Amino acid sequence: MQMLLMYNIEKKKSIEIKNICRKLMISYKKVENSEYGCSIEYLLGLSDNAESKPGEDFSGEMLLMADFNDGFLNIFLTLLRKRKASVDLKAILTDTNRHFTSYELYKELSAEREAIKNGNFYHQA
After folding, report:
1. In which order are the strands placed within the sheet that holds 3-7?
2. Which distant-in-sequence residues (6+ apart) come within 8 Å of 18 by Cβ?
């Protein structure tokens, strides 16, 4: 089942994203700052390990999409653009990032975005 984690999405955009999710029957969760130290897999309900790592808060918008196949992902992203609800930092759940905390994922996506902005195709971890 598709699941969307939402971070720091302003109210108007959040309403649009939730409407898209309801239309496409996607479960969604607004992740609270107090949950940023939990693993992504815990937030998605894929693990019972509620252990939280220390981290930092962040204010940037971010989406994490779980169980979105390519076709479904394209439909979702197209609707985000059409409804002017696009978010710069987006990730698909992977075997690697499922163990990240929200802050670790945000840091990684921000570094990748900065590398691309500077003309690089990847960043050095």
Report:
1. 27-30, 3-7, 62-66, 89-92
2. 28
